[in-house]
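Page 37, top half.
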Amino acid sequence: MTTRIPPMQALRAFEATARTGSLTAAAESLHLTHGAISHQIKALEEELGVELIARAGRGIRLTDAGERFALRIRGALSDITSAVREMTEAANPRRLSVSVVPSFAARWLLPRMRQFMTEHPDIDLDVRAAMGLVDFRREDVHLAIRYGAGNWPGVNAEFLMEDQFFPVCSPRIAHGVPKRPQDLSRYTLLRSDDEFWKPWFVAAGLDWPEPTRGPIFNDSAHMLQAAAEGHGIALGRRSLVGMDLENGTLVQPFGITVPSPRKFYLVYPPSFANSPKLAAFRDWILEEIGATRSPAQVKPRRSTKRRAQ
């Protein structure tokens, strides 16, 4: 009897769930819905005739069979990804795939891409905008620009730049541009899922709680677009609002800024460290950062292999 191999998407859905311990986290890592992951795992269990995942309270746990199966397919999927990457690289050696968070892609990288294309016509950038962290063992991506602490396991992380927070708004906002921090009480404050107003309030001498009303966004680019259209005042990041401040689309009412606890890093697998395409992209992006930052804000380049902390 011929053994039928389950669909690859079902195997990836199960492996991601086993690895993250959560259907929701697996869905986020694969850019699918919770329902799609659950459906694919159920179909896989029916195909194999074995229960792989069991409910445990509000969460899940792997069955004994699930533990064994996850261990076997994890290495196999990694080998498949490596083989696909090798074939893709051979077929298109000009391609350089870069994973980047959508807000940074839209508001920093894409406006500057023409310069890179002019300087490096032999490299075809493949920009992959995604909120989740890229897994180089499972995804056909060469490098990433990430915003965080820089302590991602098993990769090289090179510091690129720091960031700052400060309020921004449209110069044509209703009631006019606020003149004092206290004036913000009269305005709608636009909010982000994971970036908070409270540290800026403290720096401005305002004993205010974190806002709990008003529009909230999971993408900073959308929040800043809402601010540019006069829908409220956003807590902007220097890295994302630089060009809007220069062209007057947004204004910075106050000189008070707070440093971001997170920083930008160039991240890639150790196996890609000696790539000429990586070197070309690294040199270009550092030059672009230097052109938009004061010398004190740009640290010397350093490359380290980070482990989880």
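Page 37, bottom half:
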Amino acid sequence: MRTPASGRWLLLFHQIPPKPEYVRVKVWRRLQRLGAVPVKNAVWVLPYSEQALEDFRWLLEEIVAGGGVASLCRGEFVDGLRVRDIEALFRRRRRRRAIARPRAAMPRGARARGRTWVTRRGVFVDRIASAWLIARYIDPEARFKFVAPEGYTPRPGELRFDMFEAEYTHEGDRCTFETLLARFRLRDPALRAIAEIVHDIDCKDAKFHRREAAALARRLAGIARPAATDRARLRRGGTVFDELYLALEAPRRRTAP
């Protein structure tokens, strides 16, 4: 799937069968958490960004997996709705949310060594966490490469993660970190806890209701400031995940016989 190269808006068109009902509810909740607004029945819009493109693509795959039909395009509104009309929809949505907000291709399990792991530039939550997991537990000799989100053709021997059509990426409702845990059979309880935290931040569905998610999201947002290079983000993010792992592992060490 490819999206047009220009246009201010990203639009998701979908049709979801009436049964099972949970699919419709799940999609609606995800759209709400993404901050999308409806401009027509079954047409939702976000301002174009690489993050919005990623979010809508994962949602599109979930809709199709649930038996629905969906398509994604980027463009401008020509007739009917004007730019200020769309902007007004987002302003109203932000006001409502502010009022409602409380005040307070490898074989499964195979091991990789010294591979080049490719992901989209501008790494953030799932990609920072996944790179940390790869370097610490999957491929200690890993090299990382950052590319444009679309149009990249992998070279022989490269492994892609957390990008469209990658070898390791979202599967079903799992984020890439969770996929890596499953595919490489990593069963460490502290890693599983990190996976739940990363899922809640990245997938925006509060599936695990991890109380650590908000604090981690703030720390990663500070690391991912616009001036930071991808390698700097991985380096600083790696320290954050090292600390988080030790904090989650400590109670288990204290209770071990």
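Margin note: The chain has a mean pLDDT of 83.
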